[in-house]
Structure formats: C-alpha cells, structure tokens
Amino acid sequence: MSQANILLVEDDAQTQNLIRQILETEGYKVRVAPSIFRAQGEVKRLVPDLVILDRRLPDGDGIAFCRQIKAAAETSGLPILFLTAKGSISDRVLGLKLGGDDYLVKPFQCDELLARVEALFRRVKSGEEPAAKILEVHGIVLDLDRHQCRIGKRGVRLWPKEFELLQSFMERPGRLLSKEFLSERVWGHEFFTSSRAIETAVQRLRRKLGAKGQLLETVKGYGFRLQEEAP
Asked: C-alpha dihedral over 39, 44, 46, 50, to 10 degrees?
C-alpha cells in the first residue's frame, strides 16, 4: 500500500530516523510526533492510515492516546501498531486489550517491522473484522462490540469505567484481581487511581447489577474477584 500515510509517535530521534528511513524506502509517507499532544494535533490535521505508537512518551503512556483514537467515531477503525521496549506478557496483553492491533517490541528487525505494517494494511484492505465478542457469566451478558450489558431482559446502564471493570472481572471469573491491576487495566498507567476510588467504583457496579452484585467479592487487603460459581 504505497503512498499510505503513517503517523509515527516516538520521542527518540535516532529511532524516529531509523523507522522513517525504513518506511519511506518502501514508499510510505511518514509524519512524526514526539509526544501525545503533538500526535493529537497531527490526527486532527490529517487522519493517517496507520499509527505506530511508542508506550513511553514524555507526556504519558501511549495507551492513553490509543484509547482516545479508538473511542472517537472518526478514528475508531484506525489501525495501531505499538512499538515499544515494554515487552512483558502483561504489557503486550494490556496494549492489545485496550485497542492496539499489533505489538512489536524494541529492539526490532527492519523486515519484521515492514511485515507487521504490511499485514495491518492487508487486514484493512480486506475489510477483515474481528468476530463479535459476547461475555456471559452467571446470567450477566456483556456485549463488547455494542458496549451493552444486560441481565435477563433488563438492560444495565454502565459508565465506561464500570463497563471496563465488569469486563475485567468477567474475563477472569474466580481470579483475584488486585487494585493495582484494576487501576492499570481500567484507568491506565497515566492516571493515579486511589484505592478508595476503585472501591467506590466497584460498589457502584454492585448496585447496578442488583442481586448479581453479590457475586463481586471483596478480599480485604488484596482486591476483588467475581465468584466462579454462583452461591
């Protein structure tokens, strides 16, 4: 897909130059932003065809920018390739769960970077869509595509953070989730979320779930879990 526009969000000048050279040699047009703030301006000026996004940026975690892109109607389908030194399994899973389409760890091979970029463009060109995802635990149904929750025939209106909290629990029934994990998973690295704020959010979620709310168990001093088997 030559002449495609790629936005590279990377603050290291040496890495910027390397990636720009690799991509421009293949015919891609590359714009560079060294921060989330600058990247926001670039997207408003001209929506790119692909974003290559670092995690560690001067003004925050790239995941914050990823979530902004995926939340806006005009850019929700914009493919994002994370390119970062944060290479642990938990970092990769978090990046992909919060909207990233692919995740490449530094240091990288030039051929692999090009292969990942080309694969993302092929996916977009073919119109490939991920299958609709529905979570159902203990009669609670969560439609991840439509961002809807229901219990039986009753719709449950959830705020975005409440929805993400419930999704975290329903994806891991029976597993104890620490407040640190929930803070990172729901609020992101760029936010400091107090223990009390997380407890309050879980309490609100319990109330909205009605009788099903009793399935959300507090483990004092550790965190919370969704009971694996209904009482």
From this structure: 50
Which H helix or E strand runs over 66?
helix 62-71
Top pLDDT among 208 and 103 is at 208
CATH architecture of 5-126: 3-Layer(aba) Sandwich (3.40)
* pLDDT confidence bin for 231, thresholds 50/70/90: low
Report residue 190 as tokens.
């760029």
Same fold, 5-126 and 134-226: no
Give the start-to-end residue ranges of the domains of the chain.
5-126, 134-226
Task: Give the predicted TM-score (pTM) of the model.
Answer: 0.54
Q: Which of 49-58, 93-102, 136-145, 212-221 has the lowest mean pLDDT?
A: 93-102
CATH class, domain 134-226, is mainly alpha
Angle at alpha carbon of residue 49, lines to 23 and 100, rounded to 5°: 90
Beta-bridge partner residues of 32 = 8
pLDDT recorded at residue 90:
65
Q: Structure tokens of 229?
A: 């088997």
Residue 225 and residue 176: Cα distance in Å, rounded?
5
pLDDT of residue 193: 57
Distance CA(215)–CA(192), nearest Å, equals 27
Q: Is beta strand 148-151 parallel, antiparallel or unpaired with respect to 223-226?
A: unpaired
